[in-house]
Write a structure and sequence with these properties.
single chain, 438 residues, alpha+beta, Peptidoglycan synthesis regulatory factor (PBP3), Domain 2, Beta-lactamase, 3 domains, 5-stranded antiparallel beta sheet, 12 helices, 19 strands
Length: 438
């Protein structure tokens, strides 16, 4: 018993040493864990802070628009009832080129259509202000002699009295409505000193206005050396309508002038088939008419300008022009290719925002026949934008017409926020790289 007890007590010193060694190993492991965690935290504070700052300050990627380009709008071509004779051309103010033409570049006698040139050249020298009648002109025995000379040449005339005083406006009425050859000469003498003086001024005026195929030999058109082409005469008609005084005179059916009596317009188509001008012209061999007509199309008015030369007589000429105009008028139509608020592009961002680009306004155009109406959408890429921001444009084209309408955003594209930025470094880095390359 005593030996057994003694052997048990002898074990204690060796067991105490093992426990102490184990405690040292645990302490060392704890030191490694603490200092390793501290190093990790410090690393996150240093390296992670740089990443966070970069992520939060980087530009967000731009959203590329998905664009809807509308298809062109094209109507069927208008079928025209064309004259079967002479030379003709038809245009419309504000529209490119000619709507119809036959022998459009062939020079032909223009006859009394020449008086339109005479009027424009005189008005350039002596313009009439709006609401006024221009300077007064005194007529003498010399003007009466001119009257009788024109009668002897079988030319058209308007009455004149020696001692009468007429305004320039009244004198132009006598020149254009009954096509008074005598007033062409009298006005040329008054404005330029002689008929030749007016002819010289008219040649300069024709060149300045690009009427290169038109020739003038006298003030009245009596000479067959007064020639022009249908294409040139359409331009001349447009120039005449651009002058308010002439536009009003050629649209007048008749006028009463105390010194002259009632003067009636020689254009018998006036007031029918939309016709509101411009000037007849008659030779021994042909009847001519430079004409204009107005037609309501949608919420606007289209002015057609045309000419037909070489009719056998004025009755035949009027019938051909009336038929032509009746076939031209329905060829104009209003097209509305763009509605206000129409969606034309869309944006979707990687962080879930979406918005549409819409037309800020509508657009309508009046077109002729099968002229195509095209719509081009130009939407820009964008990153952040407020609702209502302009993000591009829509261009409507039809012939020479062009209308530009802004594209606006219908919703806000907002910043994606901190959480998305920290979770999507690749998108931000790509955007930063793209910005750097630009």
């Amino acid at each position: 018993m005593t030996g057994a007890s003694g052997s048990t007590a002898g074990i204690a010193p060796a067991g105490a040493g093992d426990v102490a060694a184990a405690r040292k190993r645990v302490y060392r492991r704890r030191r490694i864990l603490v200092f390793g965690s501290l190093a990790l935290v410090l690393g996150l504070l240093v390296g992670g802070g740089v990443y966070t700052a970069n992520a939060l300050g980087a530009p967000v990627p731009a959203a590329v628009p998905v664009v809807e380009q509308p298809a062109p709008i094209v109507a069927a071509p208008q079928q025209l009832a064309l004259p079967g004779f002479g030379g003709y051309a038809v245009g419309a103010i504000g529209f490119d080129g000619l709507l119809a033409a036959g022998n459009a570049d062939q020079q032909m006698a223009s006859a009394s259509i020449t008086k339109v040139i005479t009027s424009l050249v005189i008005l350039e020298q002596h313009p009439i202000a709006a609401g006024e009648n221009g300077p007064d002109i005194q007529y003498t025995d010399a003007d009466v002699d001119i009257y009788w000379d024109m009668i002897a040449q079988n030319g058209s005339v308007a009455p004149v009295e020696a001692g009468a005083t007429l305004s320039l406006r009244e004198s132009l009425d006598a020149l254009l409505l009954p096509s008074g050859n005598n007033y062409a000469i009298s006005l040329a003498n008054w404005a330029f000193g002689s008929e030749q003086g007016l002819v010289d001024a008219a040649r300069v005026w024709l060149d300045a206005h690009g009427l290169v195929n038109t020739r003038i030999a006298d003030a009245s058109g009596l000479s067959l050396d007064n020639v022009s082409t249908p294409a040139d005469l359409v331009k001349l008609g447009e120039l005449a309508l651009a002058d308010p005084v002439l536009a009003e005179i050629v649209a007048t059916q008749k006028v009463d002038i105390p010194e002259l009596g009632t003067l009636e317009n020689s254009n018998k188509l006036l007031g029918t088939h939309g016709v509101d001008g411009i000037k007849t012209g008659t030779t021994d061999d042909a009847a001519n008419l430079l004409f204009s007509a107005d037609y309501a199309v949608g919420d606007t008015t289209v002015t057609v300008v045309g000419v037909l030369l070489g009719g056998e007589n004025h009755a035949m000429l009027r019938e051909a022009i009336a038929t032509l105009l009746d076939s031209v008028a329905p060829g104009f139509h209003q097209v509305t290719p763009l509605q206000a608020g129409q969606e034309l592009a869309s944006y979707d961002t990687p962080w879930g925002d979406s918005a549409n680009a819409r037309a800020a306004d509508g657009a309508s155009v009046v077109v002729w026949s099968d002229t195509p109406v095209e719509v081009e959408v130009r939407a820009e890429p964008l990153a952040l934008a407020e609702k209502g921001a302009e993000v591009g444009s829509v261009i409507v084209r039809a012939g020479a017409q062009e209308i530009t309408v802004p594209l606006v955003l219908d919703a806000e594209i907002d910043d994606p926020g901190t959480w998305w930025r920290l979770q999507n470094p690749s998108g931000l880095e790509a955007q930063a790289a793209q910005s750097g390359s630009e």
